[in-house]
Amino acid sequence: MAGEGAKIVITDLDVARGEAVAAGIVAKGGEALFFQQDVTDEAAWPGAIEMAVARFGRLDTMVCNAGIAVFGPSLTMSLAEFRRQNAVNVDGVFMSAKYAALQMRKQGDGGSIIMMSSVAGLRGSANLAGYSASKGAVRLLSKSMALELASDGIRVNSVHPGIIITPIWEKAASPLGGGLNSPLDPQVLGAAVPIGKPSAPEEIANGVLFLASDAAHHMTGSELVIDGGITAGAIRRPS
Ligand SMILES: NC(=O)c1ccc[n+]([C@@H]2O[C@H](COP(=O)([O-])OP(=O)(O)OC[C@H]3O[C@@H](n4cnc5c(N)ncnc54)[C@H](O)[C@@H]3O)[C@@H](O)[C@H]2O)c1
What we know:
With 239 residues, the protein is α/β, with parallel strands linked by helices. 41% of the residues lie in helices and 13% in strands. Helix 3 (79-107) runs parallel beside helix 4 (129-149). It is globular.
Protein backbone atom coordinates (compact mmCIF):
# COMPACT_ATOMS: atom_id res chain seq x y z
CA MET A 1 0.00 0.00 0.00
CA ALA A 2 2.89 2.31 0.77
CA GLY A 3 4.26 1.53 -2.69
CA GLU A 4 1.00 2.87 -4.16
CA GLY A 5 1.42 6.13 -2.26
CA ALA A 6 -0.66 5.45 0.84
CA LYS A 7 0.42 7.14 4.05
CA ILE A 8 0.38 4.38 6.61
CA VAL A 9 -0.30 4.23 10.33
CA ILE A 10 0.76 0.91 11.82
CA THR A 11 -0.18 -0.16 15.31
CA ASP A 12 0.72 -3.39 17.09
CA LEU A 13 1.44 -4.70 20.56
CA ASP A 14 4.90 -5.65 19.33
CA VAL A 15 6.89 -2.42 19.26
CA ALA A 16 10.06 -3.79 17.65
CA ARG A 17 8.12 -5.36 14.81
CA GLY A 18 5.90 -2.33 14.19
CA GLU A 19 8.82 0.08 14.24
CA ALA A 20 10.74 -2.11 11.80
CA VAL A 21 7.85 -2.14 9.32
CA ALA A 22 7.41 1.64 9.57
CA ALA A 23 11.17 2.18 9.17
CA GLY A 24 11.17 -0.08 6.10
CA ILE A 25 8.46 2.04 4.47
CA VAL A 26 10.26 5.30 5.28
CA ALA A 27 13.56 3.87 3.96
CA LYS A 28 11.85 3.31 0.60
CA GLY A 29 10.64 6.93 0.49
CA GLY A 30 7.16 6.32 1.90
CA GLU A 31 5.39 7.86 4.87
CA ALA A 32 4.58 5.78 7.93
CA LEU A 33 3.89 6.23 11.61
CA PHE A 34 3.99 3.50 14.25
CA PHE A 35 2.65 3.55 17.77
CA GLN A 36 1.89 0.75 20.17
CA GLN A 37 -1.74 -0.21 20.62
CA ASP A 38 -3.68 -3.06 22.16
CA VAL A 39 -6.71 -3.46 19.89
CA THR A 40 -8.72 -4.94 22.77
CA ASP A 41 -8.45 -1.73 24.81
CA GLU A 42 -11.48 0.35 23.88
CA ALA A 43 -10.31 3.42 25.79
CA ALA A 44 -7.30 3.71 23.47
CA TRP A 45 -9.24 3.63 20.18
CA PRO A 46 -10.44 7.26 19.91
CA GLY A 47 -6.90 8.50 20.65
CA ALA A 48 -5.41 6.14 18.06
CA ILE A 49 -7.70 7.50 15.35
CA GLU A 50 -6.97 11.08 16.47
CA MET A 51 -3.22 10.45 16.22
CA ALA A 52 -3.58 9.12 12.68
CA VAL A 53 -5.68 12.08 11.61
CA ALA A 54 -3.40 14.59 13.37
CA ARG A 55 -0.44 13.21 11.42
CA PHE A 56 -1.96 12.65 7.98
CA GLY A 57 -5.12 14.80 7.93
CA ARG A 58 -7.70 12.10 7.25
CA LEU A 59 -8.47 8.38 7.32
CA ASP A 60 -9.46 6.63 4.10
CA THR A 61 -8.80 2.95 4.81
CA MET A 62 -8.78 0.79 7.92
CA VAL A 63 -7.28 -2.69 7.76
CA CYS A 64 -8.40 -4.66 10.83
CA ASN A 65 -5.58 -7.16 10.81
CA ALA A 66 -4.40 -7.98 14.35
CA GLY A 67 -5.18 -11.58 15.18
CA ILE A 68 -4.19 -14.52 17.33
CA ALA A 69 -4.84 -18.26 17.19
CA VAL A 70 -4.72 -21.01 19.78
CA PHE A 71 -4.38 -24.60 18.61
CA GLY A 72 -5.94 -27.36 20.62
CA PRO A 73 -8.98 -29.61 20.94
CA SER A 74 -12.17 -27.84 22.06
CA LEU A 75 -12.56 -30.21 24.98
CA THR A 76 -9.31 -29.09 26.58
CA MET A 77 -9.50 -25.43 25.57
CA SER A 78 -10.21 -23.19 28.53
CA LEU A 79 -12.87 -20.53 28.37
CA ALA A 80 -10.09 -17.98 28.94
CA GLU A 81 -8.26 -19.15 25.78
CA PHE A 82 -11.50 -19.13 23.81
CA ARG A 83 -12.31 -15.61 24.98
CA ARG A 84 -8.79 -14.31 24.37
CA GLN A 85 -9.11 -15.17 20.68
CA ASN A 86 -12.49 -13.49 20.49
CA ALA A 87 -11.18 -10.42 22.32
CA VAL A 88 -8.49 -9.79 19.69
CA ASN A 89 -10.11 -11.27 16.59
CA VAL A 90 -13.69 -10.04 17.06
CA ASP A 91 -13.78 -7.24 19.68
CA GLY A 92 -10.61 -5.71 18.22
CA VAL A 93 -11.97 -5.82 14.68
CA PHE A 94 -15.33 -4.42 15.80
CA MET A 95 -13.71 -1.48 17.58
CA SER A 96 -11.26 -0.71 14.79
CA ALA A 97 -14.12 -0.67 12.27
CA LYS A 98 -16.41 1.33 14.54
CA TYR A 99 -13.93 4.08 15.38
CA ALA A 100 -12.65 4.24 11.80
CA ALA A 101 -16.20 4.54 10.45
CA LEU A 102 -17.03 7.33 12.91
CA GLN A 103 -14.06 9.29 11.54
CA MET A 104 -14.92 8.47 7.91
CA ARG A 105 -18.53 9.54 8.44
CA LYS A 106 -17.27 12.85 9.85
CA GLN A 107 -15.13 13.35 6.74
CA GLY A 108 -18.23 12.73 4.63
CA ASP A 109 -16.74 11.13 1.54
CA GLY A 110 -16.70 7.41 2.21
CA GLY A 111 -13.91 5.02 2.99
CA SER A 112 -12.90 1.38 2.95
CA ILE A 113 -12.77 -0.97 5.93
CA ILE A 114 -11.08 -4.31 5.38
CA MET A 115 -11.50 -7.00 8.01
CA MET A 116 -9.03 -9.87 8.12
CA SER A 117 -10.93 -13.12 8.45
CA SER A 118 -9.59 -16.48 7.23
CA VAL A 119 -10.63 -19.63 5.41
CA ALA A 120 -11.23 -20.72 9.02
CA GLY A 121 -14.13 -18.26 8.95
CA LEU A 122 -15.71 -20.07 6.01
CA ARG A 123 -15.64 -23.66 7.22
CA GLY A 124 -14.87 -25.63 10.37
CA SER A 125 -11.31 -26.23 11.53
CA ALA A 126 -10.52 -29.10 13.90
CA ASN A 127 -8.22 -28.01 16.75
CA LEU A 128 -8.89 -24.37 15.92
CA ALA A 129 -12.50 -24.05 17.06
CA GLY A 130 -12.09 -20.79 18.97
CA TYR A 131 -10.18 -19.21 16.10
CA SER A 132 -12.67 -20.49 13.54
CA ALA A 133 -15.61 -19.17 15.57
CA SER A 134 -13.96 -15.76 15.82
CA LYS A 135 -13.17 -15.58 12.11
CA GLY A 136 -16.72 -16.68 11.23
CA ALA A 137 -17.98 -13.81 13.39
CA VAL A 138 -15.76 -11.38 11.48
CA ARG A 139 -17.31 -12.51 8.19
CA LEU A 140 -20.83 -11.53 9.29
CA LEU A 141 -19.69 -8.46 11.23
CA SER A 142 -18.27 -7.24 7.93
CA LYS A 143 -21.49 -7.86 6.01
CA SER A 144 -23.64 -6.29 8.75
CA MET A 145 -21.54 -3.14 9.00
CA ALA A 146 -21.43 -2.98 5.19
CA LEU A 147 -25.23 -2.69 5.17
CA GLU A 148 -25.25 -0.05 7.90
CA LEU A 149 -22.56 2.08 6.26
CA ALA A 150 -23.42 1.71 2.56
CA SER A 151 -25.36 4.99 2.45
CA ASP A 152 -22.25 6.78 3.77
CA GLY A 153 -20.15 5.35 0.93
CA ILE A 154 -18.11 3.43 3.51
CA ARG A 155 -17.38 -0.03 2.11
CA VAL A 156 -16.73 -2.97 4.43
CA ASN A 157 -15.30 -6.24 3.14
CA SER A 158 -13.62 -9.31 4.62
CA VAL A 159 -10.47 -11.03 3.38
CA HIS A 160 -10.06 -14.79 3.80
CA PRO A 161 -6.46 -15.95 3.48
CA GLY A 162 -5.56 -19.63 3.46
CA ILE A 163 -2.09 -20.42 4.76
CA ILE A 164 0.74 -17.90 4.96
CA ILE A 165 3.91 -18.69 6.87
CA THR A 166 3.99 -15.98 9.52
CA PRO A 167 4.71 -15.97 13.27
CA ILE A 168 1.02 -16.63 14.07
CA TRP A 169 1.67 -20.37 13.55
CA GLU A 170 4.52 -20.43 16.03
CA LYS A 171 2.55 -18.45 18.60
CA ALA A 172 -0.57 -20.61 18.21
CA ALA A 173 0.71 -23.58 20.19
CA SER A 174 -1.59 -24.04 23.12
CA PRO A 175 -0.03 -24.59 26.54
CA LEU A 176 -2.55 -27.42 26.72
CA GLY A 177 -1.11 -29.20 23.68
CA GLY A 178 -2.73 -30.28 20.43
CA GLY A 179 -2.40 -28.73 16.98
CA LEU A 180 0.06 -29.43 14.22
CA ASN A 181 3.24 -31.46 14.53
CA SER A 182 5.41 -29.26 12.37
CA PRO A 183 3.42 -26.11 11.84
CA LEU A 184 6.18 -24.18 10.13
CA ASP A 185 7.20 -26.84 7.62
CA PRO A 186 6.19 -25.30 4.27
CA GLN A 187 5.85 -28.78 2.76
CA VAL A 188 3.37 -29.85 5.42
CA LEU A 189 1.44 -26.63 5.06
CA GLY A 190 1.75 -26.62 1.28
CA ALA A 191 0.24 -30.08 1.03
CA ALA A 192 -3.07 -28.59 2.17
CA VAL A 193 -3.05 -26.04 -0.67
CA PRO A 194 -4.19 -27.16 -4.16
CA ILE A 195 -1.79 -24.67 -5.76
CA GLY A 196 0.96 -26.53 -3.88
CA LYS A 197 2.44 -23.89 -1.60
CA PRO A 198 1.39 -21.43 1.10
CA SER A 199 0.48 -17.88 0.05
CA ALA A 200 3.06 -15.13 0.29
CA PRO A 201 2.10 -12.19 2.54
CA GLU A 202 2.21 -9.95 -0.56
CA GLU A 203 -0.55 -12.04 -2.17
CA ILE A 204 -2.86 -11.10 0.69
CA ALA A 205 -1.65 -7.49 0.62
CA ASN A 206 -2.56 -7.27 -3.08
CA GLY A 207 -6.15 -8.18 -2.24
CA VAL A 208 -6.23 -5.63 0.57
CA LEU A 209 -4.84 -3.00 -1.79
CA PHE A 210 -7.56 -3.77 -4.34
CA LEU A 211 -10.33 -3.48 -1.72
CA ALA A 212 -8.89 -0.17 -0.56
CA SER A 213 -8.79 1.21 -4.10
CA ASP A 214 -11.43 2.92 -6.23
CA ALA A 215 -11.33 -0.14 -8.50
CA ALA A 216 -13.36 -1.91 -5.80
CA HIS A 217 -15.91 0.93 -5.48
CA HIS A 218 -18.84 -1.42 -6.08
CA MET A 219 -17.70 -4.04 -3.59
CA THR A 220 -19.12 -3.99 -0.10
CA GLY A 221 -20.15 -6.85 2.15
CA SER A 222 -18.03 -9.14 -0.04
CA GLU A 223 -15.62 -11.83 1.01
CA LEU A 224 -12.35 -11.99 -0.86
CA VAL A 225 -10.84 -15.48 -0.63
CA ILE A 226 -7.09 -15.73 -1.31
CA ASP A 227 -6.25 -19.31 -0.44
CA GLY A 228 -4.57 -21.12 -3.34
CA GLY A 229 -7.75 -23.15 -3.77
CA ILE A 230 -8.13 -24.53 -0.23
CA THR A 231 -11.85 -23.84 -0.06
CA ALA A 232 -12.59 -24.67 -3.71
CA GLY A 233 -13.61 -28.23 -2.90
CA ALA A 234 -12.88 -31.37 -0.96
CA ILE A 235 -10.42 -32.96 -3.38
CA ARG A 236 -6.78 -32.13 -2.81
CA ARG A 237 -4.00 -31.91 -5.36
CA PRO A 238 -2.74 -35.39 -6.24
CA SER A 239 0.72 -35.94 -4.73
N1 LIG B 1 -0.83 -16.68 8.66
C1 LIG B 1 -1.90 -17.33 8.20
O1 LIG B 1 -1.81 -18.47 7.70
C2 LIG B 1 -3.25 -16.66 8.26
C3 LIG B 1 -4.31 -17.27 7.59
C4 LIG B 1 -5.56 -16.67 7.61
C5 LIG B 1 -5.74 -15.48 8.29
N2 LIG B 1 -4.70 -14.90 8.94
C6 LIG B 1 -4.97 -13.65 9.66
O2 LIG B 1 -4.09 -12.63 9.21
C7 LIG B 1 -3.94 -11.65 10.24
C8 LIG B 1 -2.47 -11.35 10.42
O3 LIG B 1 -1.84 -12.52 10.95
P1 LIG B 1 -0.36 -12.95 10.57
O4 LIG B 1 -0.43 -14.27 9.91
O5 LIG B 1 0.38 -11.84 9.91
O6 LIG B 1 0.19 -13.25 12.06
P2 LIG B 1 1.23 -12.46 12.93
O7 LIG B 1 1.24 -13.12 14.26
O8 LIG B 1 2.51 -12.35 12.19
O9 LIG B 1 0.59 -11.01 13.01
C9 LIG B 1 -0.45 -10.68 13.90
C10 LIG B 1 -0.06 -9.40 14.61
O10 LIG B 1 -1.13 -9.04 15.49
C11 LIG B 1 -0.51 -8.47 16.63
N3 LIG B 1 -1.43 -8.52 17.76
C12 LIG B 1 -1.86 -9.63 18.45
N4 LIG B 1 -2.67 -9.26 19.45
C13 LIG B 1 -2.76 -7.90 19.39
C14 LIG B 1 -3.45 -6.93 20.16
N5 LIG B 1 -4.22 -7.28 21.21
N6 LIG B 1 -3.33 -5.62 19.81
C15 LIG B 1 -2.55 -5.26 18.77
N7 LIG B 1 -1.87 -6.12 18.01
C16 LIG B 1 -1.97 -7.42 18.32
C17 LIG B 1 0.73 -9.31 16.86
O11 LIG B 1 1.66 -8.67 17.69
C18 LIG B 1 1.21 -9.55 15.44
O12 LIG B 1 2.16 -8.58 15.04
C19 LIG B 1 -4.61 -12.25 11.49
O13 LIG B 1 -5.89 -11.68 11.65
C20 LIG B 1 -4.71 -13.73 11.15
O14 LIG B 1 -5.75 -14.36 11.86
C21 LIG B 1 -3.46 -15.46 8.94
